[in-house]
Amino acid sequence: MHRFDFPLKKSIPLFIAGIIIILVLAAFTGTDEIIGALGQTDKRIYALAFLVQVLAIFVWLGKWKILTRAIDLEVGTRRMFPILLSGIL
Prior knowledge:
Blueprint: E1 2-3, H1 8-29, H2 31-40, H3 43-70, E2 73-74, H4 77-88
Parallel strand pairs: 1-2
């Protein structure tokens, strides 16, 4: 299998851009409104939504592992995880 080396330097700008977009949206919406809305939510539903999102990320990671192996690329999970997260943000 071929080894795929993707430098993290390429994913860090995408991660930073995602964080900036989230901060701009939060500033536009108003942090008081966001905190107020989070305070009104049912904590169990919020925790369940978080758990489902984490599980979805791991399923997506498994999908990409299968696809990269199918084309003879060996990409480690620790290497693929930040790349996947930078694409989500």
